[in-house]
Amino acid sequence: MLAFLGLDYQMHDLDLGVSEQSSDDYLRLNPFGQAPVIDDNGVIIRDSQAILVYLAKKYGEDRFWSDDPTELAQITSWLSTAANEMQNGPVRLRVHHKLGRPIDVKHATDITIKLPNIINDHLTDKKWLVADKLSIADIAIYPYLALAHEGQIDISPYQNITEWLARFEALPDYVSMPGINL
């Protein structure tokens, strides 16, 4: 999101191996001890979805947001999907397969099985998740689908999703992240 907005930023990778997210310094930023967190000149925002909303509204000049009530509700619905279904399905499977963390695999798989069909169907005749432009809905959902392979989820049969991923990755300000095979 920061690259799409053309903003300068400093990134700090948390050292989860030494529980840096539980340090006093980090807990002052986010008492829940979760990532991500941003500090925008003293304004502290935690939670991926909240950060996207904040950045879109503060710096996006409505490029990634909408004031149209229907589009805004759709964007909010996709942010909720990212925070709920994506977290409880693909993310849990990814953490399990990549890091060996114990999870309820059946529950995570049951959630995950539905998602590609829903998203693929939604993208029929659409370039983006909401309206006809890139929004924070796309930015919120993208990493979960792009990293699905790390949870042993094959999205290659879903043509609309694979085309959407390719469109996203072809954006001029796109910055890849670890684990994404370009």
Low-confidence stretches: none
Give the strand order of the largest sheet, numbering strands 1, 2, ... along the chain. Answer: 1-2
Radius of gyration: 17 Å
Q: What can be said about the biggest beta sheet?
A: 2 strands, antiparallel
What sequence of helices (H) and strands (E) makes up the elements? Answer: HHEEHHHHH
Q: Strand tally, please?
A: 2
CATH class label of the largest domain? Mainly Alpha
Query: How big a fraction of the residues is strand?
Result: under 5%
> Which architecture of the largest domain per CATH?
Up-down Bundle
Helix content: 40-55%
Pfam family, one: GST_N
GO molecular function, one term: transferase activity
Protein name: Glutathione S-transferase
Family: Belongs to the GST superfamily.
Describe the structure.
The chain is mainly alpha-helical. The chain folds into 2 domains: 3-60, Glutaredoxin (3-Layer(aba) Sandwich); 69-170, Glutathione S-transferase Yfyf (Class Pi), Chain A, domain 2 (Up-down Bundle), CATH 1.20.1050.10. The chain has helices spanning 2-5, 24-29, 48-59, 69-99, 105-122, 136-146, 159-169; strands at 37-40, 43-46. The chain has a two-stranded antiparallel sheet with strand order 1-2. It is built from 7 helices and 2 strands. The radius of gyration is 17 Å and the shape is globular. The chain starts with a helix and ends in a 13-residue tail after the last helix. A hairpin with a 2-residue loop joins strand 1 (37-40) and strand 2 (43-46). Keywords: Transferase. InterPro entries: Glutathione-S-Trfase_C-like, Glutathione-S-Trfase_C_sf, Glutathione_S-Trfase, Glutathione_S-Trfase_N, GST_C, Thioredoxin-like_sf. This is Glutathione S-transferase. It holds the Pfam family GST_C. Residues 1-63 form the GST N-terminal domain.
